[in-house]
Design goal:
The structure holds two protein chains of two kinds. By secondary structure, chain A is an alpha+beta fold. Chain A is built from four helices and twelve strands. Among the domains of chain A are: about 35 residues; about 80 residues, Rod shape-determining protein MreC, domain 2 (Thrombin, subunit H). The radius of gyration of chain A is 23 Å and the shape is globular. Chain A starts with a helix and ends in a 12-residue tail after the last strand. By secondary structure, chain B is mainly alpha-helical. Chain B has one domain. In chain B, helix 4 packs antiparallel against helix 5. The two termini of chain B are about 15 Å apart. In chain B, about 40% of the residues are buried. The chains are: A alpha+beta, B mainly alpha. Chain A: Pfam families: MreC. Chain A: Involved in formation and maintenance of cell shape. Chain A: Belongs to the MreC family. Chain A: This is Cell shape-determining protein MreC.
């Protein structure tokens, strides 16, 4: 028996397995605050990646621009037509927002769920193994980014901030299949319905919206936005459009499959949304 | 002061590390956007070449550090690549005791290690519930395309990197 304990290799193997299991357990515990060694590594790696990624992105953008030049003429024609409608719409929006502000003032409402401060950021790298899809952005806690903030592009929501370093942070995309990724959302159809976005169908590339009421009819193309009721995200961020609806296994609720509004595979500039109205700041992962 | 050992080699390692993240961002549409996934495992290719032409123990140090940084920075789950990178180096060293270090045989070892890595990471995510992909789908959509991409990278870097590593070894006095 002493022979067994003297076997150096075996002991090293056992100890390293224990260490690995402990590490995996630690990182799966869902803490949103990064420990200081993690912070340090994140900051150093983020700094190096920033230096490389910015010029590369610039050159890639230049070639994309050259590509775009080819169809400028037809695009211009099309845009000119839209411009006339836009002027009309603009004056209408100005009118409405003025009216809205006045009404809010008369009711003593200061901020509502849809208000947020935008923080502009650039994506610097993407997780190479495509299992839990997350990207790194170049803004961190110094710029006011905090865990659990929503992140969007002009086309729609893409995910939420999970961990922050000083000058870089990690954004978990909607396409990552993590049970703790939950977003409270509304279907803006003929009648409003609430549900929870949880899960991603990787084969069809559609988001799953669960717990929709079973007696309501949904049609393809209806828009889904965040509800802001989870306490962390602002409301009215566009997420996607309904592609199809299925009744779930138990027959008690419906699951809608959404086509994400933003292209999750072509990310460049993103906006981190800092909700103005302070919500539930406790360390919850649901949102 | 040995410039090759203390400056150029770490710089190459950092460059390959950054290349993985930046290339998967720049080519994310073509790497992951279609039905098939091309996963860059350039660090594995680099570690196999280093273990073959340079030596086991210094490569193990690189593997540990790179694995740790990779986990913290890219995947966010500590321990996966931290375990796999040193394992790859160890296995490559064992293989190279019996194999010749020619282009074809080292290429086969690279393919073996990429398959091993992908399967280990896949089974890990299956275990923790991070994915619900079927094994047949995994092989069809991910595995063989990943092998092709990394084999292509291997063919591009094999000769220049080998000559660099051999000179590094010579200047190291071993």
């Amino acid at each position: 028996m002493p022979q067994f304990f003297l076997n150096k290799r075996l002991i090293i193997l056992l100890v390293s397995i224990i260490v690995l299991v402990a590490l995996v357990g630690y990182s799966l515990s869902g803490k949103s605050k990064a420990s200081w060694p993690e912070q340090f590594v994140k900051d150093v790696a983020g700094f190096g990646e920033n230096i490389v990624s910015k010029p590369v992105g610039f050159i890639a953008g230049f070639f994309d621009g050259a590509q775009d030049l080819k169809n400028t003429y037809t695009e211009n024609e099309h845009l000119k037509e839209r411009l006339e409608e836009l002027a009309q719409l603009e004056s209408k929006v100005a009118d409405l927002s003025k009216e809205n502000a006045e009404l809010k003032k008369s009711l003593d409402i200061e901020a509502d769920l849809s208000d947020y401060d935008p923080i502009n950021a650039t994506v610097i790298s993407r997780n190479p193994d495509n299992w839990n899809t997350q990207v790194q952005i170049d803004k961190g806690s110094v710029d006011g980014v905090k865990p659990n903030m929503a992140v969007r592009t002009p086309e729609g929501m893409i995910g939420k901030v999970t961990k922050t370093g000083a000058k870089s942070s990690t954004v978990k995309l909607l396409s990552s299949t993590d049970d703790r990724n939950r977003i409270s959302a509304i279907v803006q159809g003929k009648s409003v319905a609430y549900g929870i976005i949880n899960g991603y169908d990787a084969e069809q590339r559609l988001l799953e919206m669960k717990q929709l009421p079973v007696d309501q009819k949904f049609t393809k193309g209806e828009k889904v936005v965040t509800s802001g009721l989870g306490g962390i995200f602002p409301s009215d961020i566009f997420i996607g459009t309904i592609e199809k609806v299925e009744t779930d296994k138990m027959g008690l609720s419906q699951t809608a499959f959404l086509k994400p509004g933003a292209d999750l595979y072509d990310l460049n500039h993103v906006i981190v949304l800092k909700r103005t109205l302070e919500g539930d700041t406790s360390e919850g992962s649901g949102s | 002061m040995n410039i090759r050992k203390f400056v150029v080699m770490p710089l190459i390692a950092i460059a390959v590390f950054i290349l993985e993240g930046v290339s998967s961002l720049m080519f994310s549409q073509s790497f992951f956007g279609e039905q098939r996934f091309f996963i860059p495992h350039f660090l594995i290719v680099m570690l196999v070449l280093m273990a073959t032409f340079y030596g086991r123990n210094p490569t193990l140090i690189y593997a540990f550090i790179l694995g740790m940084v990779f986990d913290i920075y890219y995947t966010g789950i500590l321990g996966i690549y931290f375990a796999i990178f040193p394992l790859v180096v160890y296995l490559t060293d064992k293989f190279m005791k019996v194999l010749q270090n020619s282009l074809i045989l080292v290429g086969l070892v690279v393919v073996f290690n990429v398959i091993l890595t992908e399967c280990l990471v896949y089974s890990f995510y299956l275990l923790i519930g991070g994915t619900d992909m079927l094994f047949s789908t995994f092989v069809d959509q991910r595995l063989w395309t990943t092998i092709l991409l990394n084999l292509a990278f291997f063919l591009v870097v094999f000769f220049p990197f080998r000559s660099f590593l051999l000179e590094l070894k010579r200047s190291d006095g071993r």
